[in-house]
Design a protein that fits this description.
This is TetR/AcrR family transcriptional regulator. This protein has a single domain, classed as Tetracycline Repressor, domain 2, CATH 1.10.357.10. It has 9 helices and no strands. The termini are far apart.
Length: 191
């Protein structure tokens, strides 16, 4: 149980201060333990960071698959809704903030290890989107001439644009970019 509390506190510290700004003493203080007690559960800060990263990646994947399994919305509504949900998750959930910060700014000495996991998740997301596009293409006549590989990759690029604005642009700019990008993407696919 203490390991879970340590990871939860570490998540908040890493999400808000990055790897280098998070201290084990601050994490321990939030949990109500002394710093050396962390070492009973995690070998070092790197191991703790990677454990939090692993959980964040698993949660991102679970949320994405659960979202796209929902069949109550049209394909177009699903695509737009997923963009909106990513923004809302970032605004409301420290795990989403941590995940986004980590995927764009991994600690330099853990870069290769973290980016391997990031690209693995992105590849899985692209496969998930390809399946969604394939199913939509079979049901929606206006998508018949669509190259679904290009459409899925373009959607990932659209998500990346929203993520960059979340990190750098602030609330207003993110909202403007999300709406403008969706407007163009929607017109290209569904008009």
């Amino acid at each position: 149980m203490t390991a879970d509390k340590i990871k939860a506190a570490a998540l908040a510290h890493f999400a808000n201060h990055g790897y280098s700004g998070a201290s084990l003493s601050g994490i321990a203080s939030d949990v109500g333990i002394k710093t050396p007690s962390i070492y009973a559960h995690f070998k070092n800060k790197d191991e703790l960071f990677l454990a939090v990263t692993e959980e964040a990646i698993a949660r991102e994947w679970e949320q994405a698959t659960a979202y796209f399994k929902n069949r109550s919305s049209s394909f177009k509504e699903k695509l737009y809704g997923f963009l909106r949900s990513q923004k809302e998750n970032y605004d409301e959930d420290e795990r989403a903030k941590f995940w986004l910060r980590t995927s764009y700014f991994p600690p330099e000495h853990l870069h290769d290890q973290v980016m391997k996991d990031v690209y693995n998740l992105l590849d899985k997301m692209e496969t998930l989107l390809l399946q969604e596009f394939k199913e939509a293409k079979e049901q929606e006549p206006q998508l018949n001439s669509l190259n679904i590989e290009h459409a899925a990759k373009a959607y990932i690029a659209l998500l990346d644009g929203v993520f960059v604005e979340l990190l750098y642009g602030g609330e207003r700019r993110t909202e403007e970019r999300l709406e403008a990008s969706w407007y163009m993407y929607e017109r290209a696919l569904f008009s």
